[in-house]
Design goal:
Layout: H1 3-21, H2 28-34, H3 42-47, H4 50-69
């Protein structure tokens, strides 16, 4: 998988995991595996932390909503 899409793939995987099992069940390792990333530090590289990943998921969902509001 291309590195340019790795961030988006991890955001999508994190969202799926959060919807299916809740945020408490979501770990960076699980997101890395679910998104097909072989690099074990990919999530930490792109988001810094689990909280950073959660913020990225919220931003990805809220971006289009906020654009419509404006």
């Amino acid at each position: 998988m291309a590195e340019t899409g790795a961030r988006e793939q991890m955001i999508a995987a994190a969202e799926r995991i959060a919807v299916e099992r809740g945020l408490a069940a979501m770990s960076l390792r699980e997101v890395q595996l679910a998104s097909g990333q072989r690099n074990k530090s990919a999530a930490a590289y792109h988001f810094g932390s689990r909280e950073g990943l959660i913020e990225a998921v919220v931003a990805a969902r809220m971006g289009p909503v906020n654009e419509r509001r404006l």
